[in-house]
Every structure is written in structure tokens, then in C-alpha cells.
Amino acid sequence: MTPGTPFFKMTGSGNDFVMVDGRVSPADGWSPARIREICDRRMGVGADGLVVLTPEGPGRVRMSFWNCDGSVAAMCGNAALCSTRLAAHLGMASGEGMTLVTGAGAFQTRCSPDPWQAALNLPSVDLPIPVAEVALEPGELRLHLGTVGVPHAILEVGDIEEIDLERRGRELRYHPAMGPAGANVNFIGPVRAGLPTAIRTYERGVEAETLACGTGTVAAALALAAQGHLGLPASFRTRSGRVLVVDARLAGGRADQIWLGGEGRLVFEGQLRADPVSHLDGTAGREFSR
To answer: Where are the alpha helices (DSSP H) in the chain?
Structure first.
């Protein structure tokens, strides 16, 4: 078999990615069709998105990120945590601190002392604001909208296990109140003292529930903290069961000194085929013929 492109499969609290070294396979060589094939969970490796990491000078690494449907995404918190760990693992930058360059700007990140944990420093943002244009359904308490890298709706609910996440997430993701590009929809369970707050996310680009969303968790933490419903730092239990931690300082309708901490774990390594399966024109298996 002809050798293909080396890749790394990584997970950030269940939000999983195919990661590629841009020195081996540059970001501009990836087409939406190829990304969809690689991210397909039955016919490919399977992932919520694809990331290409490319050094951009001392201590600087570019994270090019695509959703599993092949669309470009400006930022993903869990992808950034995974990128930080992998960039250090590959010697692109020091794990003690680096600048991660994304479509949403440059971020300071670092590896945490715990194995395969990392922390991401996000820039100042406006606090999420209430959304009055959307009628709430039974069991829904409050809806906010904010931007942390990408737009996020934050919907507080009385019972996070009883929601019809696929239906309601799809409705809100495309609602005009979310803006022309739509938004991720984060469902937040009740805050309980001493316990991580439950969060579930319907993610645009994936168009389904993902097991975790880093920037969505930050948006949720800011919305709840602004209402006085929880103090920071705060812990959130993602759908995967992994915990993300958010800290920030709130003042004057904005948040700064924002940090997201969580998992960026290498699961396995492999090689992608040099030729996409869908381009074999019915010749699949010919390479094995005698």
C-alpha cells in the first residue's frame, strides 16, 4: 500500500479531531470533500473536525480548523486544547506557553501539569445578552446569546435529560435571532452547589450533538455568572462525562482574563490513504490483486 499522510486522533472531553502536521500536509491542500471523507464515522477515521497545525515562528503555531462537513470554523476551544498538547508533543512550541493563531485571532495557551491537560486564554468578550425574540417552550428557563470565538446560544433548562436536543437545537441553530450564520446551541442544566453544572451542545457544522464544546462552555459560564447563578471559577460536566473548568473576571458588561482548562488527549496515530476512497472509480481492492 502506498504510504499516506500521518495523522493523530485526539479528543478534548469527547469532542474529537483528526490532527495533521502542516509541515507534512499543508492546510491549503485539504478540500471540503476530503475532510468530509476523513471525518465520516463509518467510512473514514471519524471526527467532529479536522485540524492542521503549522509553525509560524518562535512560539507561534497556526491552528487551521474545519468542521466535519468541510466548512471552515474560526475557533474551537477543545480543538485549541488538543492543538496545544500536540504542538508541544511535536516540538512546534514549548508546552510552558505558546501563541495559537486561529481564524478568530491569536490565543495564549499552555500545557497543564496533569497528563494530556491544557489551558487556553481567551480574549475579552461582551457578556451574553438575553434573547427576547424566541418563545420558550415548557421546561426552558432563560435564553442568552453571546460570541466566544463563534456565536453561542445558551439555553437554561429545568431537566437537561428530558430535552429533545436534536429538534430544539436544530430550530434554534437556524433561528433568525441567532444571526445570519446561526449559532451553536448549549443546553445548561440547573446549577447545584458543589457539583459541576451539566452542559449539552448542538453544534453547527456537525449539525448534531457533540460530546463537548469548549467555547460554548465558556459562553455558558459567563451567562450564568453574569446573572449571579454561579461563581467563577466554575466546573461543567460535558456529555462525555469529562469536566471543563472556566475562570474569568466580569466587569462593565464584559469578561476578561478568561481561561478554559480541559482535556487534550492523544488517542492513537495512523496514516491516511494518499487516494480518497470515493475517487477510486470502482477500483477499490485492485492494489491487493495478484
So the answer is: 32-39, 77-89, 165-173, 214-226
Number of CB atoms found within 10 A of residue 258's CB: 22
Q: Are 84 and 100 in contact (CB under 8 A)?
A: yes
Report the SS3 class of residue 178: helix
Mark whether 82 is an active-site residue. no
Calpha distance 88→134 (Å, rounded)? 44
Asked if 238 and 257 count as a contact pair (C-beta separation under 8 A), the reply is: no
Which residue segments constitute the domains of the chain, with CATH numbers given?
Answer: 5-116+266-288 (3.10.310.10), 125-263 (3.10.310.10)
The HSE-up count of residue 122 (CA atoms within 13 Å, CB side) is 32
Contacting residues for 220 by C-beta, under 8 A, at least 6 apart: 152, 154, 186, 188, 197, 199, 236
pLDDT band at 4 (very low <50, low <70, confident <90, very high): confident
* Active-site pick, 68, 82, 111, 213: 213
pLDDT at 90 over 70: yes
Say whether 32 sits in a helix, a strand or coil: helix
Nearest partner of 141 among 102, 190, 177, 93, judged by Cα: 190
Q: What is the pTM of this model?
A: 0.84
**What does the block give as the cell for 5?**
499522510
- For 209-242, write each residue's pLDDT tens digit: 999 999 999 999 999 999 999 999 999 999 999 9
Enumerate the β-bridge partners of residue 10. 17, 266
Helix (H) or strand (E) holding 35: helix 32-39
Query: Tell me, what DSSP letter sits at residue 222?
Result: H
Scan for cell 477499490, then name that residue: 284
* Catalytic position from the list 39, 76, 82, 111: 76
Q: Catalytic: 213?
A: yes
**Which amino acid would we find at residue 94?**
S
Nearest CA among 67, 49, 56, 70 for reference residue 101: 56
| Contact (Cβ atoms closer than 8 angstroms) between residue 260 and residue 244 | yes
